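Deliverable D2.4 — example input (structure tokens):
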């Protein structure tokens, strides 16, 4: 029994040491973990998907491997320094996934956070901290798959649709708002912008309506045909 336990300890110890086997195992594990996380993002049609998360996790793991190699071979350097640069450098990838839509909705925050967490997981794999990496992997999958259901069903924040109008100052805005109320939409806020013309009023209407959020084309056409409406953009 004691001998079996020693064999298990030796096997784990060899994977924690820096050798050909441990390097291959760590990189393959990083690829598998990152790929699974990226697959979930990919099937949801997010900006960063399978390949991005795989490359990110493998890159983070290799950074830790290089840090360990430099320290073990030359006895100089700080193994944590390169990993700190990875964490801060992930910002440019995360920023690329965050967008503000024409409807003033912010998208991509979850994907950006997933990229950052995947990089941290890759660092844990690269340094040989398998227990932490596995725990992070399980928790990330739990958050992305199960917590997402709760978030979507119970915590979804109502959003609004921004409607940009250019109307004649004399009758246009009143007709447009009257039509919007007639079809059952509600206006949350009206904000005026300079139009560059004294006879034209440029406004943004924030609408609270599921139909408006889906962009009902036929209704938009009818709104555009209202007297005094010069231009409409959604």
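Example output (designed residues):
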């Amino acid at each position: 029994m004691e001998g079996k336990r020693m064999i298990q300890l030796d096997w784990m110890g060899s994977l924690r040491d820096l050798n050909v086997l441990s390097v291959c195992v760590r990189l393959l594990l990083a690829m598998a973990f990152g790929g699974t996380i990226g697959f979930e993002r990919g099937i949801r049609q997010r900006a960063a998907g399978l390949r991005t998360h795989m490359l990110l996790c493998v890159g983070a793991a290799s950074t830790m491997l290089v840090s360990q190699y430099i320290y073990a071979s030359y006895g100089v350097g700080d193994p944590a320094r390169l990993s700190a640069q990875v964490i801060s450098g992930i910002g440019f990838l995360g920023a690329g996934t965050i967008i503000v839509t024409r409807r003033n909705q912010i998208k991509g925050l979850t994907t950006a956070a997933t990229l950052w967490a995947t990089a941290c997981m890759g660092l844990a794999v690269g340094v040989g901290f398998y227990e932490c990496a596995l725990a992070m992997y399980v928790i990330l999958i739990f958050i992305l798959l199960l917590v997402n259901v709760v978030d979507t069903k119970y915590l979804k924040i109502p959003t609004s649709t921004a409607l940009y109008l250019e109307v004649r100052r004399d009758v246009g805005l009143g007709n447009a708002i009257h039509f919007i109320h007639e079809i059952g939409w509600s206006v949350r806020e009206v904000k005026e912008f300079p139009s560059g013309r004294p006879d034209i009023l440029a406004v943004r209407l924030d609408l609270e309506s599921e139909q408006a959020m889906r962009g009902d084309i036929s209704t938009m056409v009818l709104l555009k045909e209202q007297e005094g409406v010069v231009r409409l953009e959604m």
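The chain has two domains: 2-154, 161-233.
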